[in-house]
Amino acid sequence: MRHYYLVSSLSYSQVPDNGILTQNVIVTDIDGVEHNFYDILDQNKAIVLDLFAEWCGPCWNYHDSGSTHPNAGALKDLETQYGTAGTGELVVLGVDSHAGGTELELEGGQGTNGWDWVTGTPYPLAVQEIGGTFNQSYYPTIVVICPDRTVTEIGQQSVANLYAAATQCGNASTATNDARVYSYLGDLESCGEVDLDVVIQNYGSTNLTSATVRALIGGTEVATTTWSGNLSQYDVADVNIGTVTITQDETVTIEITDTDEDASNNTMNVNLTYASEEYAGDVTVTINLDDYPDETTWEILNESGAVLGSGGPYPGQELGTVQETVSIPATGCHSFVIYDEYGDGLNGSQWGGTDGNYTLTDGDGLTIAQGGGTANWDDEKSTFNVVETASLNDLNAFSKTIAIYPNPTSNVATLSFDNNETKETSVSVINSVGQEVISIDLGAVSGLQNVEIDAASLEAGIYLVKISSGNDVTTKRLSVAH
After folding, report:
1. Domains of the chain
2. How many CB atoms lie within 10 A of CB 257?
3. Pick from 219, 153, 191, 114: which is nearest to 21 by CA?
4. pTM across the whole model
5. pLDDT tens digits, residue range 289-327?
C-alpha cells in the first residue's frame, strides 16, 4: 500500500512558480510566535518545512522517533543538531496544513488517533492552510526553501540528506541590479527545430524591467530577443528566445547580455541531442503497469503537436500489460510522452509494490524509447524521426481521415474514417478499466465509413474508441457527458 494521502482539489506539482517562492508566507505557531519566511531567508537560513495532517499515518510514522520508518524522527534530530535548538544554521517548521485543523487535534484529543504531535517536538508546530502556496497534493510534503527563494521537494529523507539539501542552497541576494538565467524549459531532443525557452529571474533589489537574452552555438549568435516587463526581487519570467535548427548534437549557451553586478549567473549551457536515428512504419506502445495504473497516461504527437494516439489512465489494471499500435500517417519528427499524475513514474517498489516499465517500438521492431523502473518523473518525452510510413501506402489509410463528433456527446456520436481498400473492420468502445462496452463488426468494407456509436447508456467519462482494420489498429478518445 502506498504511504501517502491525496489532497483534494489540488493538482500535483513539486514546487511553486518554476521552483521559486514568489509570495511571502507568515506562519503563527501554536505558542503564538510568528515565523516570517522572507525574514528567515534574508538571514541566509534555509527552511525545512513539513506540511502534514494530524490524521495521516505516514506523516506520524516519519515524525515519531519510535516508529518503524527508516528515517523516523529525522526532523526532530535535524532541529536539535542544526536548527534553532542546535547550531542555528537552519529553521525547521511543521505545519498541519489540512483544512479545518486545530491545536487540540495536534495534542491527540478526542476524535483523533491519539497521536500527540506536540510533546517532545523541539521545533515549532502550527495549524495553517498553506499547502496551496506549495501546490501540495499529498501528505506529508517535505520541502526545503532556500535563501535565494528556490523551493525543492525532498521527501521523507534522513537527517544527513535534509542537512545536505539545506547547505547546498543559494544565498539571499545582496545585489541592487542582477538578472540571472534561472532554468531552461525548451526541448532537449529534436529532429531539427528547437524552441529555446528559458526562465529568467530578477536577483537584484531594483525591479527588472527589460533584458536582452540570446543563444549562441560555437560562439555564434543563433537567436536573440529583448524581454520587457516588471519583476520585483526574486520574481521570474518565461522568455522565448527563438527557434534554432540543429542537424547534430549541439551545446547552446543561453546568455543575458545586460551588464549587472554579477556576471557569473548570466549564462547557462544547454546540451541538445539530435534525433538522428530513423524509424519506419507505425509504432507500438507497450506498458507493463505498476501498482498505480490510474496515474499513467501517454500520447504520441506529430511535429505540429497534433495527437495521433493516446491511452490511459488504466484503473483496475494493476501490474497488467497494455499494448497499442498507433498509425503514423506522415514522415517527420514525432514525440512520445508518458505521464504519471502522482510524479513517481512507474516506481511502485518504493511503496512496497512492483515497478513498471514501457517500450516504444517501430514497425520493424526497433526500440525507439524505453524506461520505467525506479526512476521518478512527472513525464518522460522521447523524440523520434519517422522516415517511412506503412500507413501511407496500403496499410491504415483510414488513420488520415479519422474523426468523431460530437465530442463530448450525451447521446449518439458518429465515427468517420476512410479505408483505401477492402478489409475486415471492427469498432469497439473501451471504458476506463479496460472493459469492452460496445462492439461493432462492420465486416469487409472499403471507402468512407460513418459509424454511429450509441453513448446514451454509457456512464459519463472518457472512453477509447478502437478501430481495427486488417492488421492495423488505431484509437480515438470519446468523452461522454450526461
Report:
1. 5-167 (3.40.30.10), 179-274 (2.60.40.10), 278-392 (2.60.60), 397-480 (2.60.40.1930)
2. 14
3. 153
4. 0.66
5. 999 999 999 999 988 888 999 999 999 899 999 998 888
